[in-house]
Amino acid sequence: MRFSSSFTIVKYHSKQFARYYSIMANPLVAVCQMTSTNDKDKNLETVRKLAEKAKSKSACIAFFPEACDYLADNKKATVAMSQSLDGPTVASYKEIAKTNRIWLSLGGLHEALSNNETHISNTHVLINSQGEIVGAYRKMHLFDMDNKSTGVRLMESDYVLPGQKIEPPISTPIGKLGLSICYDMRFPELSLSLRNMGAEILTYPSAFTYQTGAAHWEILLRARAIETQCYVVAAAQTGTHNKKRVSWGHGMIIDPWGTVIAQCSEKTDLVVAEIDLELLKQIRENMPCENHRRTDLYPKITPL
Protein backbone atom coordinates (compact mmCIF):
# COMPACT_ATOMS: atom_id res chain seq x y z
CA MET A 1 0.00 0.00 0.00
CA ARG A 2 2.84 2.37 0.78
CA PHE A 3 4.41 1.70 -2.61
CA SER A 4 1.11 2.33 -4.39
CA SER A 5 0.57 5.65 -2.63
CA SER A 6 4.10 6.86 -3.30
CA PHE A 7 3.94 5.72 -6.90
CA THR A 8 0.80 7.78 -7.46
CA ILE A 9 2.54 10.86 -6.08
CA VAL A 10 5.46 10.35 -8.43
CA LYS A 11 3.21 9.73 -11.43
CA TYR A 12 1.45 13.01 -11.00
CA HIS A 13 4.27 15.01 -9.48
CA SER A 14 4.14 17.73 -12.14
CA LYS A 15 0.79 18.89 -10.78
CA GLN A 16 0.85 17.74 -7.20
CA PHE A 17 4.27 19.19 -6.40
CA ALA A 18 3.74 22.64 -7.95
CA ARG A 19 3.44 24.29 -4.55
CA TYR A 20 6.24 22.13 -3.15
CA TYR A 21 8.62 23.34 -5.86
CA SER A 22 7.73 26.95 -5.21
CA ILE A 23 8.74 26.87 -1.56
CA MET A 24 11.74 24.52 -1.61
CA ALA A 25 15.22 25.93 -2.09
CA ASN A 26 16.51 23.43 -4.64
CA PRO A 27 19.42 24.55 -6.83
CA LEU A 28 18.57 26.16 -10.15
CA VAL A 29 20.24 25.43 -13.48
CA ALA A 30 20.04 27.39 -16.72
CA VAL A 31 19.98 25.72 -20.13
CA CYS A 32 21.18 28.15 -22.80
CA GLN A 33 20.46 28.40 -26.49
CA MET A 34 22.37 30.36 -29.13
CA THR A 35 23.24 30.57 -32.81
CA SER A 36 27.00 30.28 -33.20
CA THR A 37 28.73 31.49 -36.37
CA ASN A 38 32.34 31.88 -37.46
CA ASP A 39 32.53 35.15 -35.50
CA LYS A 40 34.27 34.01 -32.31
CA ASP A 41 34.11 37.40 -30.61
CA LYS A 42 30.36 37.64 -31.13
CA ASN A 43 29.85 34.09 -29.87
CA LEU A 44 31.91 34.85 -26.78
CA GLU A 45 29.84 37.93 -26.07
CA THR A 46 26.67 35.83 -26.33
CA VAL A 47 28.08 33.36 -23.82
CA ARG A 48 28.99 36.23 -21.50
CA LYS A 49 25.51 37.79 -21.66
CA LEU A 50 23.74 34.47 -21.15
CA ALA A 51 25.99 33.61 -18.18
CA GLU A 52 25.18 36.99 -16.63
CA LYS A 53 21.47 36.42 -17.21
CA ALA A 54 21.68 32.92 -15.71
CA LYS A 55 23.36 34.36 -12.62
CA SER A 56 20.67 37.07 -12.35
CA LYS A 57 18.10 34.27 -12.23
CA SER A 58 20.05 32.59 -9.39
CA ALA A 59 21.23 29.63 -11.46
CA CYS A 60 24.35 27.96 -10.07
CA ILE A 61 25.29 26.32 -13.39
CA ALA A 62 24.74 27.57 -16.94
CA PHE A 63 24.78 24.92 -19.67
CA PHE A 64 25.92 25.96 -23.16
CA PRO A 65 25.56 24.05 -26.44
CA GLU A 66 28.04 22.21 -28.58
CA ALA A 67 30.15 24.60 -30.66
CA CYS A 68 29.42 27.56 -28.41
CA ASP A 69 32.92 28.80 -29.34
CA TYR A 70 32.20 28.86 -33.11
CA LEU A 71 30.71 27.10 -36.12
CA ALA A 72 32.97 27.61 -39.12
CA ASP A 73 31.92 27.47 -42.76
CA ASN A 74 34.13 24.51 -43.69
CA LYS A 75 36.34 21.79 -42.25
CA LYS A 76 39.62 23.55 -42.97
CA ALA A 77 38.50 26.65 -41.10
CA THR A 78 37.10 24.53 -38.27
CA VAL A 79 40.53 23.03 -37.61
CA ALA A 80 42.42 26.28 -38.19
CA MET A 81 40.26 28.21 -35.68
CA SER A 82 40.61 25.63 -32.90
CA GLN A 83 42.51 26.34 -29.68
CA SER A 84 43.96 24.27 -26.88
CA LEU A 85 42.26 24.30 -23.49
CA ASP A 86 44.91 26.72 -22.23
CA GLY A 87 44.17 29.15 -25.06
CA PRO A 88 42.47 32.57 -24.93
CA THR A 89 38.89 31.37 -25.51
CA VAL A 90 38.85 29.02 -22.52
CA ALA A 91 40.67 31.71 -20.51
CA SER A 92 37.74 34.02 -21.28
CA TYR A 93 35.26 31.37 -20.17
CA LYS A 94 37.18 31.00 -16.90
CA GLU A 95 36.96 34.74 -16.36
CA ILE A 96 33.20 34.74 -17.02
CA ALA A 97 32.69 31.91 -14.53
CA LYS A 98 34.82 33.56 -11.85
CA THR A 99 33.36 37.05 -12.32
CA ASN A 100 29.79 35.81 -12.13
CA ARG A 101 30.52 33.10 -9.55
CA ILE A 102 28.73 30.53 -11.67
CA TRP A 103 29.66 27.11 -13.03
CA LEU A 104 29.79 26.74 -16.81
CA SER A 105 29.19 23.61 -18.87
CA LEU A 106 30.71 24.26 -22.31
CA GLY A 107 30.48 21.55 -24.86
CA GLY A 108 31.81 20.67 -27.15
CA LEU A 109 34.58 23.10 -27.75
CA HIS A 110 36.93 22.73 -30.71
CA GLU A 111 40.12 21.62 -28.96
CA ALA A 112 43.38 21.90 -30.91
CA LEU A 113 45.75 18.94 -30.54
CA SER A 114 49.47 19.58 -30.24
CA ASN A 115 50.39 16.42 -32.14
CA ASN A 116 47.84 16.61 -34.97
CA GLU A 117 47.44 19.35 -37.60
CA THR A 118 44.46 17.82 -39.44
CA HIS A 119 42.18 16.73 -36.61
CA ILE A 120 40.87 18.19 -33.35
CA SER A 121 38.86 16.97 -30.35
CA ASN A 122 35.25 17.86 -29.67
CA THR A 123 35.58 18.54 -25.95
CA HIS A 124 33.01 19.20 -23.23
CA VAL A 125 34.62 21.43 -20.58
CA LEU A 126 33.23 22.02 -17.10
CA ILE A 127 34.43 25.13 -15.23
CA ASN A 128 33.60 25.83 -11.58
CA SER A 129 32.64 29.17 -10.04
CA GLN A 130 36.30 29.87 -9.16
CA GLY A 131 37.20 29.73 -12.84
CA GLU A 132 38.90 26.32 -12.70
CA ILE A 133 38.50 23.46 -15.16
CA VAL A 134 37.12 20.53 -13.14
CA GLY A 135 36.21 18.21 -16.00
CA ALA A 136 36.84 17.57 -19.69
CA TYR A 137 35.18 14.91 -21.81
CA ARG A 138 36.05 14.21 -25.45
CA LYS A 139 33.16 13.12 -27.66
CA MET A 140 33.15 9.36 -28.21
CA HIS A 141 30.50 8.98 -30.90
CA LEU A 142 31.15 11.10 -33.99
CA PHE A 143 28.27 12.24 -36.17
CA ASP A 144 28.80 11.04 -39.73
CA MET A 145 25.90 11.61 -42.13
CA ASP A 146 25.92 11.54 -45.92
CA ASN A 147 22.23 11.55 -46.81
CA LYS A 148 21.89 11.94 -50.54
CA SER A 149 18.08 12.17 -50.43
CA THR A 150 18.16 15.25 -48.18
CA GLY A 151 21.48 16.63 -49.33
CA VAL A 152 22.81 16.72 -45.77
CA ARG A 153 26.47 15.73 -45.46
CA LEU A 154 28.16 16.13 -42.11
CA MET A 155 31.22 13.93 -41.57
CA GLU A 156 32.61 14.77 -38.15
CA SER A 157 35.25 12.06 -38.41
CA ASP A 158 36.88 13.94 -41.30
CA TYR A 159 38.35 16.41 -38.81
CA VAL A 160 37.63 15.13 -35.26
CA LEU A 161 39.31 12.31 -33.37
CA PRO A 162 36.91 10.25 -31.21
CA GLY A 163 37.39 10.26 -27.45
CA GLN A 164 38.58 7.06 -25.81
CA LYS A 165 37.31 7.42 -22.25
CA ILE A 166 34.06 7.73 -20.31
CA GLU A 167 34.71 10.39 -17.70
CA PRO A 168 33.38 9.70 -14.17
CA PRO A 169 30.51 11.95 -13.02
CA ILE A 170 31.68 15.18 -11.39
CA SER A 171 30.40 16.48 -8.04
CA THR A 172 28.75 19.87 -8.57
CA PRO A 173 26.37 22.13 -6.62
CA ILE A 174 23.43 20.36 -8.31
CA GLY A 175 24.63 16.78 -7.86
CA LYS A 176 26.81 14.32 -9.75
CA LEU A 177 27.03 15.42 -13.38
CA GLY A 178 27.77 13.03 -16.25
CA LEU A 179 29.29 14.62 -19.37
CA SER A 180 28.33 13.72 -22.93
CA ILE A 181 27.94 15.58 -26.23
CA CYS A 182 25.12 15.68 -28.80
CA TYR A 183 25.23 12.47 -30.89
CA ASP A 184 26.20 10.53 -27.75
CA MET A 185 22.52 10.65 -26.75
CA ARG A 186 21.71 8.02 -29.39
CA PHE A 187 23.76 5.44 -27.48
CA PRO A 188 22.07 4.39 -24.22
CA GLU A 189 25.12 2.35 -23.27
CA LEU A 190 26.93 5.57 -22.40
CA SER A 191 24.10 7.01 -20.33
CA LEU A 192 23.65 3.73 -18.45
CA SER A 193 27.40 3.56 -17.82
CA LEU A 194 27.31 7.06 -16.34
CA ARG A 195 24.30 6.13 -14.18
CA ASN A 196 26.18 3.07 -12.93
CA MET A 197 29.11 5.38 -12.10
CA GLY A 198 26.83 7.46 -9.89
CA ALA A 199 25.45 10.15 -12.24
CA GLU A 200 22.34 12.04 -11.13
CA ILE A 201 22.28 14.54 -13.99
CA LEU A 202 23.20 13.84 -17.60
CA THR A 203 24.00 16.64 -20.00
CA TYR A 204 23.98 16.66 -23.80
CA PRO A 205 25.18 19.99 -25.25
CA SER A 206 24.13 19.78 -28.87
CA ALA A 207 23.99 21.20 -32.37
CA PHE A 208 21.26 18.92 -33.74
CA THR A 209 20.43 19.28 -37.41
CA TYR A 210 16.93 20.57 -38.13
CA GLN A 211 15.75 17.32 -39.77
CA THR A 212 16.97 14.95 -37.06
CA GLY A 213 15.95 17.34 -34.32
CA ALA A 214 12.36 17.56 -35.52
CA ALA A 215 12.13 13.77 -35.54
CA HIS A 216 14.16 12.59 -32.56
CA TRP A 217 15.43 15.36 -30.24
CA GLU A 218 12.83 15.29 -27.48
CA ILE A 219 12.14 11.56 -27.77
CA LEU A 220 15.78 10.61 -27.29
CA LEU A 221 16.35 12.98 -24.39
CA ARG A 222 13.23 11.82 -22.53
CA ALA A 223 14.22 8.21 -23.12
CA ARG A 224 17.67 8.80 -21.62
CA ALA A 225 16.06 10.42 -18.56
CA ILE A 226 13.52 7.63 -18.07
CA GLU A 227 15.89 4.71 -18.50
CA THR A 228 18.56 6.15 -16.18
CA GLN A 229 16.20 7.94 -13.77
CA CYS A 230 18.44 10.97 -14.07
CA TYR A 231 17.81 14.62 -14.82
CA VAL A 232 18.80 15.50 -18.39
CA VAL A 233 20.01 18.96 -19.37
CA ALA A 234 20.40 19.57 -23.11
CA ALA A 235 21.61 22.98 -24.29
CA ALA A 236 21.13 23.56 -28.00
CA GLN A 237 22.24 25.48 -31.03
CA THR A 238 19.33 27.04 -32.94
CA GLY A 239 18.69 28.72 -36.27
CA THR A 240 20.84 29.38 -39.33
CA HIS A 241 24.61 29.36 -38.83
CA ASN A 242 25.71 29.61 -42.47
CA LYS A 243 24.52 28.61 -45.93
CA LYS A 244 24.96 24.92 -45.18
CA ARG A 245 23.87 24.55 -41.56
CA VAL A 246 20.62 25.01 -39.62
CA SER A 247 20.08 23.72 -36.07
CA TRP A 248 16.86 22.55 -34.42
CA GLY A 249 17.10 24.33 -31.07
CA HIS A 250 14.55 23.55 -28.32
CA GLY A 251 17.09 23.28 -25.49
CA MET A 252 15.43 21.59 -22.55
CA ILE A 253 15.60 20.22 -19.02
CA ILE A 254 13.93 16.90 -18.23
CA ASP A 255 13.31 15.37 -14.82
CA PRO A 256 13.97 11.70 -13.89
CA TRP A 257 10.32 10.82 -14.60
CA GLY A 258 10.76 11.93 -18.20
CA THR A 259 8.81 15.19 -17.90
CA VAL A 260 10.07 18.25 -19.78
CA ILE A 261 10.17 20.86 -17.01
CA ALA A 262 11.75 23.71 -19.02
CA GLN A 263 12.25 24.34 -22.73
CA CYS A 264 13.66 27.14 -24.87
CA SER A 265 11.80 28.43 -27.89
CA GLU A 266 13.64 29.08 -31.16
CA LYS A 267 15.88 32.02 -30.34
CA THR A 268 18.95 32.93 -28.32
CA ASP A 269 17.84 32.75 -24.70
CA LEU A 270 17.76 30.54 -21.63
CA VAL A 271 15.33 28.87 -19.28
CA VAL A 272 15.85 27.73 -15.70
CA ALA A 273 14.60 24.82 -13.63
CA GLU A 274 15.18 23.22 -10.24
CA ILE A 275 17.21 20.07 -9.70
CA ASP A 276 15.45 18.18 -6.92
CA LEU A 277 17.57 15.24 -5.79
CA GLU A 278 14.92 14.21 -3.27
CA LEU A 279 12.50 13.70 -6.16
CA LEU A 280 15.17 11.72 -7.99
CA LYS A 281 15.70 9.55 -4.91
CA GLN A 282 11.97 8.98 -4.54
CA ILE A 283 11.56 7.95 -8.18
CA ARG A 284 14.46 5.50 -7.92
CA GLU A 285 13.08 4.03 -4.69
CA ASN A 286 9.52 3.67 -5.96
CA MET A 287 10.58 2.13 -9.26
CA PRO A 288 13.86 0.35 -8.48
CA CYS A 289 14.73 -0.69 -12.02
CA GLU A 290 18.39 -1.16 -11.14
CA ASN A 291 17.41 -3.96 -8.77
CA HIS A 292 15.56 -5.77 -11.53
CA ARG A 293 18.24 -5.94 -14.21
CA ARG A 294 18.96 -9.50 -15.33
CA THR A 295 22.72 -9.25 -15.32
CA ASP A 296 22.76 -13.03 -15.06
CA LEU A 297 21.45 -13.07 -18.64
CA TYR A 298 23.16 -9.99 -20.07
CA PRO A 299 26.22 -8.08 -18.90
CA LYS A 300 25.98 -5.03 -16.67
CA ILE A 301 26.87 -1.91 -18.62
CA THR A 302 29.99 -0.46 -17.00
CA PRO A 303 33.03 1.43 -18.31
CA LEU A 304 36.08 -0.59 -19.26
Quote the distance from N terminus to C terminus.
41 Å
Q: Specify the number of helices.
A: 9
Which shape, going by the Cα principal axes?
Answer: globular
Radius of gyration: 19 Å
Average pLDDT taken over every residue: 92
Question: What is the structural class?
Answer: alpha/beta
Unreliable segments of 5+ consecutive residues: 1-23
Helix and strand element order: HHHEHEHHEEEEEEEHEHEEEEEEH
The overall strand count is 16
Please state roughly what percent of the residues sit in beta strands, choosing from under 5%, 5-15%, 15-25%, 25-35%, 35-45% or over 45%.
25-35%
GO molecular function: bis(5'-adenosyl)-triphosphatase activity; hydrolase activity, acting on carbon-nitrogen (but not peptide) bonds, in linear amides
Keywords: Hydrolase
Protein name: Nitrilase and fragile histidine triad fusion protein NitFhit
Domain CN hydrolase: 27-277
How is this structure best described in words?
It is built from nine helices and 16 strands. The chain is α/β, with parallel strands linked by helices. Strands 1, 2, 3, 4, 5, 12, 13 and 16 form an eight-stranded mixed β-sheet that branches. Strand 3 and strand 4 form a beta hairpin. Helix 1 crosses helix 9 and helix 4 runs parallel beside helix 6. The longest helix has 19 residues. InterPro entries: C-N_Hydrolase, C-N_Hydrolase_sf, Nit1/2_C-N_Hydrolase, UPF0012_CS.
